[in-house]
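Most newcomers find our protein records easier to grasp once they have seen one. A learned vocabulary of local backbone shapes supplies the integers on the structure line. An example says more than a description, so a record of this kind follows:
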Amino acid sequence: MVADCHPSQSSASQREEARRFLDDYDPLGNDSALENQKSTSGKGSDRPTPIPKAQLATLCAVRLVDPIAFTQIFPYVNEMMDHLHLTEDHSKIGFYSGLVESSFAIAQVISIYQWARLSDLIGRRPVVLFGIFGIGLSTLFLGVSTTLSGVILARCIGGLFSGNIAVIHSVLGEITDSSNQAIAFPLYGLCWPLGAIIGPLMGGLLSNPAPKFPQWFDSPFFRHYPYFLPCFAAAIIAFAGSAYGYFYMQESHPNLRNGKKESIPMTERRDGSFEKPSEPASVKHLLSIPVVRALCLSGAGLSFIATGFDVTFVLFCYTSIQQGGLAFNATQIGYALSISGLISILLQLFCMPFLLRRFDHARMYNFCMGLWPFCFVLLPGLNFLARWGAVDPLAGELAPATEALVWVGIAVILSISRTAALAFSVAMILVKDSAPNPASLGVTNGIAQFAMCLSRSFSPAFASSLLAFSIGYDFVLLRYLWVLVMTLICFLGTTLSRRIAEGRRLSPRS
């Protein structure tokens, strides 16, 4: 931009220095960052900015660790609680499994904002790598835990280290822009469903290996620690991800590249002077922005509902047919969860890029939220099928035709739930767009993830306890109380999601 007046020699020197800095400025150490700056300046072509493929691949590899470590416990968590001999009443297992699952999210809530703030001070890279390494250690600890307190402590430690999720989201926001996020975000979004395939498969196949693979694992150690093997495998993946990130992940924070603070070039005004770069906004200021506030509230609802469905589905599958479930074992539950992950991958890979380019993000988010009630309403239908075609209800043995119908029903319900879960990927874009300035991206992601994790900390215990309470009754309204309550919560979440579009209209950035 050329100034209207004749600047002084000092001012001209300042501008020339800033321009040289802009030419050399590359937050990822490659040419795509320079192209990013040029494309976002409003000049040049409408072509998408080239994606920094190496950094995106590294980020995806690091991101994959969390869902594997988080989901590998799901197929056997109810079996683990039974193995600890906490209660003789199998219908009460859900109370303890919900407590274990909630402990992870509660610890994550405590640490998530602190990790986000720390990453603004010391950089994204060390926070991400330290968190991934800690997840590996906590997963190993889980594998050798033989008491309820030990299991909960291990999950709490894992939750504390997993609080860096907002930082990982911030890295994605810093290496992409609005021209290429329709491609980059779905690719990044593949990490969770891919981990949701690998994790449950590992948990279902490798848990209690002594009777499954006696030729290799029939030893006193694996009989005493029947859940060590899947935890060990998940920990190895975490350590490998940490090592890979250490060698290949670059610092993305524009002020802290190359392990030292660097100044961001100042914006030149029309009068030849320079505007100081923005500082991170305070939490109070961010929550005063309507769209940020709406995203936090709706994100909390989304997280509560999605986590509640995942927990309910696993416990529903584990519950006996006579009590309203499917009587699945850990391996079958692992297969079902892996189907869910596969569906997510297909949706993220083939549908998400088109949908993000074709539809308004806020409306798409609202549509996804509107699918959640169907997930809960359709679940009891699987039990009706199982009751109708059960050969041995106590053992959970079904006639072949009935079993096929049950699995088709599972695929349909999981397809709806994974379509609804696309709201998480859309939410990441909405959060990035709602940040008042680039310096506030980390904090904005932090408070959005804090709201999600806060609701997720209550959801497992609430959903599993509600289901455990309901299945103890024969009266139909009480037996399916869990369906009624969760459906009402879903409708509330849909109502909250409508506020995002309203908030964007009121926001100065919209």
Observations:
- The domain at 51-249+281-506 is CATH 1.20.1250.20 (Growth Hormone; Chain: A;).
- Residues 93-122 form the longest helix (30 residues).
- DSSP finds 24 helices and four strands in the chain.
- The chain has one domain: 51-249+281-506.
